[in-house]
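Feature request, filed as a ticket because there's no other form

It would be nice if the structure record came with a short human-readable summary line next to the tokens. Right now we just get the raw output. Example of a typical job, pasted below so the devs can see what we mean:
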Amino acid sequence: MAKKAVASLQTGSKRLSKAIKMVKSPKTGAYTFVEAIMSPEKVNDWLKK
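Raw output as currently delivered:
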């Protein structure tokens, strides 16, 4: 289950995006949020994992 929340970040000449994914723990069943900053082209691949 993924929640697609992407914010645009700009640092100098590089364009980056911050992606937040909601992941369910197999042990407890609780949800946690995983954040990553990457290029916009890689966001969809990261969310599908």
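Something like this underneath would help us a lot:
The chain has a mean pLDDT of 83.
The two ends are 10 Å apart (CA to CA).
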